[in-house]
Amino acid sequence: MQDTSTKEAFEPRIIGFCCKFCAYAAADLAGSMRISYPASVKIIQVPCTGRIDMIHILKSLEDGADGVMIAGCLEGECHFLQGNFKARSRVEAVRRILAQIGMEPDRVAMFNLSSAMGPKFAEITAQMTDRIRQLGPSPVATAGKKSRDAA
Amino acid sequence: MIIASKKPIEEIIQEITPYSRILILGCNECVTVCEAGGKKEVEVLASALRIFCLSQGIEKTIGEHTLERQCDHEYLEEIRNMVDDYDAIVSLACGVGVQFAAEKYLTMPLLPGVNTVCLGANEDRGLWTERCQACGSCVLARTGGICPVSRCAKRVLNGPCGGSTNGKCEISKDTDCAWQLIIDRLKALDKMDDYEAVAPVKDWSKDRAGGPRTVTREDVKI
């Protein structure tokens, strides 16, 4: 069990799949508004969260991400009508897989926001960072680091 | 097509425990269409197993490969040079593919990664329903194209039975009474005379009752 001091020192590595039409624009807006958000989230722009497949989320975790957040449009406001609903069901499917293999499902989360919500973007990234910090480093990342160190 | 459903990952983890080098083998045919064992499902399962092994500190090699078909010699031959690198194969093909691979690679443990469910149709996105039981002697010509063998819980050939209520079967209110469907369709076809004819006794020896079945076609043999 990790002690709290280590958890606080731990800087999570989070992959953030952000929809071009909302979350990515919201991140831009947060920047324009000079609102800072945690550097722990590495943003990957996608044309729609409906483009994200289960394998993208799993590969991120397999390659050592401590968490994965998917940020799409508000429900009912997807540019491609249903992309964010499809993303949500895939996120749920990945969370079920994680539960089956003994990983914390909370390492993967879906958020909804609009392009006008710059402060909200900063809020969800902080929320996700806190959540992952509480969960601690991913055991996959730790195992990967150990094998790299051994080599 | 053959419909399969994914096995729970816990069950697959249990099965692969004794082995350290595992090949996840997909099939490009029916199981790809019913999204249980195609290339994509191979990738997802392999990734999930790798995450499991890394997070638990278990050292295993998980390989991935998908064949055009696992129920044909020529495609199964593709992995001939590959199998020596593995201790076991988890096949995501239907039961046919798993068995055919097992027959071909005698000393290689073959573990099924899906449950083979039925012969069915893709009724809606994410919904597959049974349509055929491969009984070996098709009666669809006189039942309005609706199969009483696969769709009637009792396989009644002169129905409906007393359990049919408001067009639904007594086993579940969500299950259509096959004979209600047959009557509705025969009415639409104006062929209710077919319904009046008593079905002859069915030759069940052509079903599973006659043991494993084979089809031999002299005209296509080489």
TrEMBL record, chain A:
GO molecular function, one term: iron-sulfur cluster binding
Keywords: Iron, Iron-sulfur, Metal-binding, Oxidoreductase
InterPro entries on file: MvhD/FlpD
The protein's name in its UniProt record: Methyl-viologen-reducing hydrogenase subunit delta MvhD
Enzyme class: oxidoreductase
Domain of life per record: Bacteria
Record domain F420-non-reducing hydrogenase iron-sulfur subunit D: where: 14-136
Pfam (any one): FlpD
Signal peptide: none
E.C. designation(s): 1.12.99.-
Automatic annotation (TrEMBL), chain B:
Record-linked InterPro entries: DUF5981
Domain Methylene-tetrahydrofolate reductase C-terminal-like: start-end pairs: 112-205
Protein origin, superkingdom: Bacteria
Protein name: Methylenetetrahydrofolate reductase domain-containing protein
